[in-house]
Amino acid sequence: MRRLPLLLIPVTAALAAVPYFSHQSPVIPQVQAQQEQPWRPASVPDKGPSESPFRSELSDQTPYNSWQERRSLIASSTLEEVYEKSIPGAVRVIIGNAGLGTGFFITSDGYIMTAAHVALGDTSEPLSVLTSQGKEYPATLVGYDELKDLAIIKVKGNNFPTLQFSSSTPKVGDGVVAIGNSRGSFDGGRAGKVTRLGASLSASFPSNMVASSMPLAPGDSGGPVLNDRGEVVGVSTAISSGAGHFSSYFVPLTTSSQIVKDLQAGLKKSVPIIGVSIADARDYLDAEGVLVTEVVPGLGAHKAGIKDPQIREYRDDSGRVRQEISGADVIVAVEGKNVNDSDDLIGVLRSKKAGDQVTLKVRRGEQTLTLKVTLTAKHKV
């Protein structure tokens, strides 16, 4: 049995919460923990130190190396103007003492679009929003779709400044700018270009996203992504990095997106889960399949008989604390389909709904078990 350094077994929340990925290529939903970036609300929010991604203002004396550079500067200047004009419509979303994200008004009577993983970040904590005018409002959850990672929350009031959706999706190469609350700033601007359409990261994230070079960071999720006309083209949701390459991703939206109307009407669509935390077995047991690292009591997997692994801790000759895994359950198939990694399992589960039953093939030592597991909604709010 392979021995692992302490804490190397990830409690990947692929089936019980929003997942994180391996250190070689992290893919991170952008809700920021307040413990990492503390801030204090002021009567007028402090926008923090200037981190403008925009070039200095154009003038007739500005030297240019090429027509392409001049076009780039003009585009950057336009996006900066868009950002400045759009700030009043954006808000900081506060999840109690647990974290923060971003959102934006889509109606003047207080409906706010954000990311589902922001609005559902900690359902035991109260939601509130802070506007660019320094006013904080309690917020209520109206609707969410975890598969699309979109949500709408609402505050009481009228005459809020709104941002309007575009009638079309951007093209590769188009300039875009996001408004977000990362790096300790309030509603900072992050400019970049669209690099890919129809992008996918893993089964744990929305499909058909738009990839870009915008330098997003934790705290930006749920914020608006705007084109050079000041129209919203999407909602920030994730970043990825690996092999020296960075990308940010947003969920595209247009004026014809039915999901916006559905969320305003109260749609609540949760991810179906079996109730375990998992990791790729090949990383820890040199085997194919998905290693169960933790079982949530009372949910489908626990009721079906799936077990927690036995982990023995000890110190090696150098004094380091080590772990040895034994008696682990490894999921090798779901609904008759082989499971080679976490994506294989999550992809099948996300095609189901809460209340459905799935058949798992589980390897436990020398035994292979066939278990029927009833799916549960990840969130019930």
On the 0 to 100 scale, the average pLDDT is: 80
Give me the number of helical elements: 5
Helix content: 10-25%
Given the C-alpha coordinates, what overall shape results?
elongated
Contiguous runs where pLDDT drops below 50 for at least 5 residues: 1-74
Largest sheet: 6 strands, antiparallel, barrel
Number of strands: 25
Protein name: Serine protease
Pfam families: PDZ_2, Trypsin_2
Keywords: Hydrolase, Protease, Signal
GO molecular function: serine-type endopeptidase activity
Q: How would you sum up this structure, described in words?
A:
This protein has 381 residues and is mainly beta. The chain has 2 domains: 3-16 and 275-377, Pdz3 Domain; 21-269, Thrombin, subunit H (Beta Barrel). It has 5 helices and 25 strands. The protein has helices spanning 67-86, 116-119, 258-264, 300-304, 342-349; strands at residues 3-5, 27-29, 90-95, 99-105, 111-114, 127-130, 136-145, 150-154, 175-180, 188-199, 209-212, 224-226, 232-242, 245-252, 268-269, 272-273, 276-280, 290-295, 310-315, 321-326, 329-334, 337-338, 357-364, 367-374, 376-377. The strands form 5 sheets. The chain has a 6-stranded antiparallel β-barrel. Strands 3-4-5-8-7-6 form a 6-stranded antiparallel beta barrel. Strands 17, 18, 21, 22, 23 and 24 form a 6-stranded antiparallel sheet that branches. The longest helix has 20 residues, at 67-86. The chain is elongated and about 65 Å long. The relative contact order is 0.17. The model is unreliable at 1-74 (pLDDT under 50). Residues 1-16 form the signal peptide. InterPro entries: Chloro_Bact_Ser_Proteases, PDZ, PDZ_sf, Peptidase_S1_PA, Peptidase_S1C. This is Serine protease. Residues 256-366 form the PDZ domain. Residues 31-63 are annotated as: Disordered.
